[in-house]
Specification:
The chain is built from 6 helices and 10 strands, in the order βββαββαβαααβαβββ. It is an alpha/beta fold. The longest helix has 16 residues.
């Protein structure tokens, strides 16, 4: 079976005013469906750049990226947007919730192009919020939510199109340890449901949930190993 993600000799070089900076230098690896991969490395190692390349947010300067059988470099702009919407769920450290929208409305944002009624969109958003433990909080604004609750809204939003791949960039970076554990429990639940999870983190304790860890150093893979994940009681997501 073809891996859901395949990177081959991927490089990312930035250049301004004659200067060059290499963020990724010939990165190659495959990810099988259903893996839970945690990517670590020091600041500047290239891990966040790697995640943006995987999500089709940046086009690498060299190499090839295939996800779900699609060659990202061969997709036109509108095709790339469709790919991201259908295949990738993004979760970021900063949540990126719109402050003037309620939790329900924030989850509904990715559904804007869909030709379904507002009532159906609101119903699906409510179901997703309930699944991440936020039943009863649908009408709260982000300013009325804690950091952990805001991150749960962001996770619910990422699940709108039931994507097979979840990309998370420091999803517990703004949370205390107890709240961070609750968010990690959600990712464990998504993994248990068969989602492929790739998480970038500086927190080495997050490795406990992973089935595989990849460590970057200076834009290259320094270590890549299979792990035995911590057994956690999955939540109903």
């Amino acid at each position: 079976m073809e891996p859901i993600i395949r990177l081959k000799d991927v490089s990312m070089v930035y250049g301004v005013n004659g200067t060059r900076a290499t963020a990724l230098a010939g990165v190659s690896f495959d990810v099988r469906r259903g893996e839970y991969v945690v990517i670590t490395g020091e600041s500047g190692s290239g891990k966040s750049t790697l995640l943006t390349v995987l999500g089709g947010l940046q086009v690498p300067t060299g190499g090839a990226v295939r996800i779900g059988g699609a060659d990202l470099s061969a997709l036109p702009a509108d095709g790339l947007a469709d790919f991201r919407r259908e295949t990738i769920g993004f979760v970021f450290q900063a949540y990126h919730l719109l402050p003037y929208l309620t939790a329900r409305e924030n989850v509904m944002v990715p559904m804007s192009p869909e030709r379904i009624s507002p009532r159906e969109k609101a119903s699906l958003a409510g179901e997703l919020l309930a699944a991440v433990g936020l039943a009863g909080m649908e009408d709260r604004l982000p300013s009325q939510l804690s950091g952990g609750e805001s991150q749960r809204v962001a996770i619910a939003r990422a699940l709108v199109h039931d994507p097979p791949v979840i990309l998370a960039d420091e999803p517990t970076g703004n949370l205390d340890s107890a709240t961070g554990k609750q968010v990690l429990d959600l990712f464990s639940s998504l993994h248990a449901r068969g989602k492929t999870v790739l998480m970038v983190t500086h927190n080495l304790s997050n490795l406990a949930r992973a089935t595989r860890s990849i460590r970057l150093r200076d834009g290259r893979i320094e270590d890549d190993r299979t792990r035995r994940p911590l057994t956690a009681k999955p939540l109903a997501v």
